[in-house]
Amino acid sequence: MNNLIEDRLFINENFSNHRLTLAEYDNCTFNQCDFSNSNLSALVFTECEFIDCNLSNANIKNATFNEVIFTDCKLLGVAFKELSTFLLSLKFTSCNLQMASFDFLKLKETVFTKCNLQQAVFYETDLNKAVFDECDLQQAQFISANLQQADFSSAFNFSINPNDNQLKGAKFSKDNLQGLLDSFQLKIV
Fold it and tell me: How many C-beta atoms lie closer than 10 Å to residue 117's C-beta?
């Protein structure tokens, strides 16, 4: 891939009907674009930002997301597990990530702020020092995940089995500890 597209602003474009040009996108901004059900496979995004975009069910197989920021985006069912892991770096703010899958990814220090992560799957995901700031984790699955030093202090509706995940140094508030006890079927009164 020799195409390089730099410093470009894409506004209100619909890529669900036609594919984004096969290229490397560097320092580009996508604002209010529709990528739902689109094919983003093998594209490279470096220092790009997606604002108020719909990427629901987009095919991102072997795409590269390096220092990519998502703000106010809809990412329903996105299989992040299919991304290229080379230089993977993501940040999410006020995004809907319901049913997204992050299996086997190294997402150290990734920040999720005010995101809906209901039914998201984190199977063997490395979330060391990740932050879940005011995130809804209802029915999210953390299975054999590295959650060491992760910050769940303002997260809510989570259920994390301490026997199945690495939690050393993870942060929780005293008000949300119930989510660590669900697997033990205890009644807290």
Answer: 26
> In 3-state terms, what secondary structure has residue 91?
strand
- Whole-angstrom Cα distance, residue 189 to residue 38? 48
Q: What three-state secondary structure class fits 162?
A: coil
Please state, in angstroms and rounded to a whole number, the distance separating the CA atoms of residues 140 and 85: 22
Q: Cα(92)–Cα(80) distance, rounded to whole angstroms? A: 13
Tell me, yes or no, if the pTM score tops 0.90: yes
- 109 phi and psi, to 5 degrees? 65, 15
Q: In 67-166, which ranges are E strands?
A: 68-71, 90-93, 111-113, 121-123, 131-133, 141-143
> Is there a contact between 112 and 131 (Cβ–Cβ < 8 Å)?
yes
Decide: 178 and 188 in contact? Cβ < 8 Å.
yes
Q: How many CB atoms lie within 10 A of CB 131?
A: 20
How do residues 19-55 score in pLDDT, each as one tens digit? 899 999 999 999 999 999 999 999 999 999 999 999 9
One-letter amino acid for residue 73 of the chain: C
Among 103, 80, 8, 4, CA closest to 44: 4
